[in-house]
Amino acid sequence: MEKVLITGSGGLIGSEAVRFFSKKGFLIHGIDNNMREYFFGKEGDTSWNIDRLKTDVKNYVHFDIDIRDKKRIEDLFKENEYDLIIHCAAQPSHDWAAKEPFSDFEVNALGTLNLLENYRLYSPKATFIFTSTNKVYGDNPNRLPLVEKETRYEIEESHPYSREGIDESMSIDQCKHSLFGVSKSSADLLVQEYGRYFGLNTVCFRGGCLTGPAHSAVELHGFLAYLVKCIATGRKYRIIGYKGKQVRDNIHSHDLVNAFYHFYKNPKKGEVYNIGGSRYSNISILEAIEKIEKILGKKAIIEFDDKAREGDHIWYVSDVSKFQKDYPEWKYEYDIDRIIEEICKVFEKNWLVNFFFFWERKLEDYLE
Q1: Beta-ladder partners of 62
Q2: What domain range is 207 assigned to?
Q3: What's the pTM value of the predicted model, to 2 decimals?
């Protein structure tokens, strides 16, 4: 039986990967110590998802390990030879990284190095897949010739990126990344180097907005799911910068994990791919609000903050043509409409949890 190690197994992508590879017959080892709750408080708590995996997925074994813990990670690799490692664990927020720079760098960069070195020593025949980020490009995308339209920003039609989006040739240099972008860039380069220097099968998937109904969404991370949560429960949603016209390409967690699987079946050494919704699935905040309002039959309560986040993108659409060329059998299953409809449906289904969420917010507002 093939064996996969998945870090961040209680998160959006990690839990999707657990379920996907379970159906493929893999024995799954998951690492998650619920650091997301430490980062974002009780709304970020992933324990509900971890508990669900333990119950639902019979070939899943859970390990409550911090990826920075050298001894426990080494012991795990010594005791197990893996065919595949999917590294999803991370500190994922711009703003949070500035609050605790050492913690951010230790989790994102040093945690990744810890995994890579043990992978090299104990499972060198395996494939190592890293969920990187488009933030490795810093704010370089903001230097593109952008045009403000009624509901979104767009890139000038004459620009080479207009048709497909931003490709892997964009520089990661001479720009502002945010400390989060720096720690993820460090990890990204390490993953590449272990592929190219040591000749191992590694890949960096530089994601756009990764989304889906399994997100423990918070204001600082999980754009679409958090927006649905706010509109559904009557909570105020704060639009940070760019008038809500900033554009993100959104890829469903299933489509991303399916891309992981295609790479695993035919791996390369030190490869890099931009991956996201591309021109197939992208949206601005204003456009997303309108769609969600129609589905839920509720009006959003919006607050505008004119100051954008440091290093945040105005327009980002991933060009996925390099990956599609290398893996032509991979196809999207979710466009932006299907993604939003599914998140809304799942949120409405969990009406009891969301009822308590609504009144908890009301109580907090009253106490303030």
Answers
A1: 30
A2: 3-367
A3: 0.93
Q: What is the amino acid identity at position 224?
A: L
Instruction: For 122-153, give one letter per residue: b (16+ CB within 10 A) or e.
Output: bbeebbbbbbbbbbbbbbbbbebebeeeebbb
Q: Return d(Cα 165, Cα 161) in angstroms, integer.
A: 5
Beta-ladder partners of 131? 205
Question: Is the C-alpha dihedral spanning 133, 138, 140, 141 positive or negative?
Answer: positive
- For residue range 46-58, what is the model confidence (pLDDT) as tens digits? 999 999 999 999 9
Q: How far apart are CA 136 and CA 169, in angstroms?
A: 12
| Residue partners of 349: CB distance under 8 A and separation at least 6 | none
CATH classification of the domain holding 50 = 3.40.50.720
* Chain centroid, CA 7 distance in Å: 13
* Cβ-based burial of 74 (10 A; exposed 0-12, middle 13-18, buried ≥19): middle
Q: pLDDT by residue (tens digit) across 92-107?
A: 998 999 999 999 999 9
pLDDT given at position 220: 67
Using only the alpha carbons of the chain, give its radius of gyration: 20
Question: How many domains does the chain divide into?
Answer: 1
Give CA–CA dist 54/30, Å, rounded.
10
pLDDT, tens only, 77-134:
999 999 999 999 999 998 999 999 999 999 999 999 999 999 999 999 999 999 999 9
What angle (nearest 5°) sits at the alpha carbon of residue 38, between those of residues 130 and 349? Answer: 80
